[in-house]
Amino acid sequence: MSTSEAKPILLTRLASIVVSALCYLTLCDATIAADGFTMSTRGGPVVVEGRKETGTPRPAVVVLSGSAGFRSPAYDEIAEALQSAGLDVYLVHILSPTDLKRIADAGGAKERLAYYATRETDWIAAVKDVVAYLRTTPGPARKVGALGISLGAQIAAAATVNNANVAALVLVDGGLPNGYSETVRSLPPLLLIWGRADQTFPLSTGRKLQKLADDLGGPADLDIYEGPHDFFLKSKTQESRAAHDSAVKFLRSQLSK
């Protein structure tokens, strides 16, 4: 994509985020604004950045970012790929500006994990409310899937456990938070995407989660790629493109049934 082509897309996205942020300050229940909206959820107000076609709502995918938020261009790439596959896309900003600052200022992994523990319940509740809203608004019920990366994968996993509102789940380099595996009675069809060299969430974590899903009746697939924890967000690399394609094909197949 040329620089001249990229500028309108960037400006449109910035306008959407600004409008959504203004709505965020009003704490509206679910006010549609441009391509985004803000919801008051049980976890607090959440900005949702929509990437969708006009007209009849299509199956939807909620996307949850890692601990740095949606800064990586890879999020635009995956959103565009999902849209092209016939899916509406919603980037759910469960991490508030305060969350992002606290995480960025943390002195190390121990401090970050301690902060996550104080916010985890609110993040999970917020995702559940956004999914329930998208499932039936606007118009008749539609299928909703979830894609989470790293911290977002943990929140997505916890929010979809025993949750019939979610029809498909893709987790990238992240699984259930501590203590959740004992409460699992059901999981949606699951695709796990993992970097072989991940040292934040070792590959063994993915294998354990795949076994848990298999024991519950599956289906559950584990795709392994060469690369570290953040390989999925390395824009336009061979490995990230292959992983994006796998995620899109899985979500399209599950949500189009």
Structural commentary:
Mean pLDDT is 87; it is low at 1-34. Helices cover 44% and strands 20% of the residues. With 257 residues, it is α/β, with parallel strands linked by helices. It is built from seven helices and nine strands, in the order αββββαβααβαββαβα. A nine-stranded mixed beta sheet has the order 1-2-3-5-4-6-7-8-9, sandwiched between helices.
Keyphrases for this structure?
9 strands; disordered N terminus; single chain; 257 residues; 20% strand; 7 helices
Q: Short description, anyone?
A:
The chain is of the alpha/beta class and 257 residues long. It has helices spanning 3-26, 74-84, 97-105, 109-136, 151-160, 203-215, 238-255, and strands at 30-33, 36-41, 44-51, 60-64, 88-93, 144-149, 168-172, 190-195, 220-225.
Annotate the secondary structure layout:
Elements: H1 3-26, E1 30-33, E2 36-41, E3 44-51, E4 60-64, H2 74-84, E5 88-93, H3 97-105, H4 109-136, E6 144-149, H5 151-160, E7 168-172, E8 190-195, H6 203-215, E9 220-225, H7 238-255
Parallel strand pairs: 4-5, 4-6, 6-7, 7-8, 8-9
Antiparallel strand pairs: 1-2, 2-3, 3-5
Overall SS class: alpha/beta
State mean pLDDT (0 to 100 scale): 87
Strand content: 15-25%
**Unreliable runs, pLDDT <50, ≥5 residues?**
1-34
Question: Which value, in Å, is the CA radius of gyration?
Answer: 17 Å
Q: Would you report the number of β strands?
A: 9
Order of helices and strands: HEEEEHEHHEHEEHEH
Largest sheet: 9 strands, mixed
Dominant shape: globular
Number of helical segments?
7
Distance between the termini: 33 Å
Helix content: 40-55%
Adjacency order of strands in the biggest sheet:
1-2-3-5-4-6-7-8-9
